[in-house]
Write a structure and sequence with these properties.
Shape: elongated
Helix content: 40-55%
CATH topology of the largest domain: Arc Repressor Mutant, subunit A
Structural class: alpha/beta
Number of helices: 14
Number of strands: 13
Strand order of the largest sheet: 5-4-6-7
CATH superfamily of the largest domain: Winged helix-like DNA-binding domain superfamily/Winged helix DNA-binding domain
Largest sheet: 4 strands, parallel
Distance between the termini: 46 Å
Order of helices and strands: HEHHEEHHEHEHHEHEEHEHEHEHEEH
CATH class of the largest domain: Mainly Alpha
Radius of gyration: 24 Å
């Protein structure tokens, strides 16, 4: 299958990020039928070279389109436009927009109006006169891959109602994701206490304040742990080992001293070693991100390590979203 030839453009002077510019052009071309279901998009490296961008920028766009149900990504085959309800909905929205925009642009050109200025003026008009529901503010949540980041994302979304964009420190540090490409002026940046200093350093060159939140373990779980046999071997497991270490440290801070406590990560570690530690443990506490998988492995030993955001963090999230 040949890939679809794309004529995309980037305007560095626009306030919209490069990622947004590329993604919205692709969605427009798919929605108006210029790119059809079944068409293959160019390889990320090829499109990046054509646009003079980092390949990781295109990877980020393709991943976003995949998450929206618009494309599917196949190792060895490439990125293909889906024949999906999401694509059909996109067509239903964009086709009438195309007719309306074509007529409007013709009128603007006949009046001698520069289209870029017309677009910016139209944006200003919508912001001032749109009486519909305002789109939720976007929160950029920065965390590492080893901690229970799905828990934080769900909690932030529940409390704020905002769109959440998770970014991982590993991807930022390696250059796989360029912060400048995804961060826009209106974004709210949130991270956890564990990574506050590192994230503040990364964001320092941008005009963004970093808001720090924290979580703790439910008291009922601490009571359960305090009642364990003093000789019991206990394992704390999260996505990565540092996540397990965080879980164990909260127990220590609560004054509960476990004689044999092991911390492991379900992913990115030696599978045989992890399996051996879990098998030899009398009790296992798993974060919500890995609980279903670990529970299936050892159902009689596993308990959920139930976390909740600290009250001060909930209040902070409510406050910063009210201010926007």
């Amino acid at each position: 299958m040949n890939h679809k030839e794309l004529l995309l453009k980037i305007d560095p002077n626009m306030t919209f990020s490069v990622n947004t510019q590329i993604k919205e052009q692709l969605k427009w071309m798919i929605g108006t039928g210029e790119i059809e279901s079944g068409d293959m998009l160019p390889a990320a490296s090829q499109l990046a070279n054509e646009l003079g961008l980092n390949r990781n920028t295109i990877n980020w766009v393709y991943n976003q389109l995949r998450d929206e149900g618009i494309v599917s990504m196949h190792k060895g085959r490439g990125t293909i436009v889906c024949n999906s309800p999401e694509v059909e909905q996109l067509k239903r929205e964009r086709v009438p927009m195309l007719r309306l925009l074509t007529d409007t642009i013709h009128h603007a050109q006949s009046e001698g109006i520069e289209l870029h200025d017309f677009f910016i003026a139209g944006l200003a008009y919508v912001l001032q006169h749109n009486t519909g529901t305002t789109k939720a503010q976007r929160i950029v949540f920065v965390e590492c891959k080893e901690h229970d980041h799905p828990f934080y994302v769900k909690e932030i979304e529940r409390i704020t109602g905002c769109e959440i964009l998770p970014l991982f420190l590993e991807d930022l540090s390696s250059g796989e994701v360029n912060l400048a490409d995804v961060l826009v002026p209106s974004d709210i940046v949130v991270t956890t206490l564990n990574h506050a200093d590192q994230v503040k350093m990364l964001v320092s060159q941008y005009d963004h304040k970093v808001h720090v939140i924290g979580a703790t373990v439910e008291p009922s779980a601490l009571i359960h742990m305090a009642r364990l046999n003093a000789e019991a071997s206990v394992a704390f497991i999260c996505l990565g080992k540092s996540g397990g270490e965080w879980m164990a440290s909260r127990v220590e801070e609560a004054g509960i001293h476990l004689k044999q406590a092991n911390t492991v990560g379900l992913y990115g570690a030696d599978k045989e070693l992890v399996a051996s530690i879990l098998e030899q443990s009398d009790q296992i506490y798993a974060s919500s991100a890995v609980f279903p998988a670990v529970k299936q492995m050892l159902p009689d030993k596993v308990e959920l390590y139930p976390m909740h955001l600290e009250k001060s963090s909930e209040n902070l999230l409510k406050e910063i979203t009210r201010e926007q």
